[in-house]
Amino acid sequence: MTELSTLILDRIRDVPDYPKPGVMFKDITPLLGDHVAMAAVVDELAGLHQVDKIVGIEARGFILAAPVAYRAQAGFVPVRKKGKLPAETLEESYDLEYGSATIEVHRDAFTPGDRVLVVDDVLATGGTARAAVDLVKRAGAEVVGIAVLMELAFLKGRERLTGVDLHSLVIV
């Protein structure tokens, strides 16, 4: 295990039965509260690709993506749940374990050809990440990769992201 992996895993708290019984929630707030750990994560993610924009997926992805964009000297673009953005949007729907959801991005968020890194906190089933990639591509930008703090391998989200460079700082 790398030093960064240890730094991250030592600062992720397991919360049983949240948000519902049977779920083991991976709480990243202890990591966020540790300046050294947070800086190491941001520096690692910012150094992955030369990009024009960093996309952050609502909501915890925003927490990581905004400082990564700053560090990478790139723009930050929020991808939000349907109905949360004020200007004209593009939307992408995807299936969840028990239903479906829709995410949106501002129609003018990208310049054609922008190189984009999608950042999120956790890769679970891959539905949201896949929808974000498809949304960015529809907006005319190039997705150079997806970067996540943590990948939950047992949920097989990686399988939905074939053809996309995926970088997970830790895999559990």
The end-to-end span amounts to: 12 Å
Describe the largest sheet. Answer: 7 strands, mixed
* Spatial strand order of the main sheet: 5-6-4-3-7-8-9
Which stretches of 5+ consecutive residues score pLDDT under 50? none
DSSP summary: helix tally: 5
Q: Level of helix content?
A: 25-40%
List how many beta strands DSSP finds: 9
Radius of gyration: 15 Å
Oligomeric state:
single chain
The general outline is globular
* Residue-averaged pLDDT: 96
- By secondary-structure content and strand pairing, the structural class works out as alpha/beta
| SSE order, one letter for each helix or strand | HEEHHEHEEEEHEE
Estimate what percentage of residues fall within beta strands: 35-45%
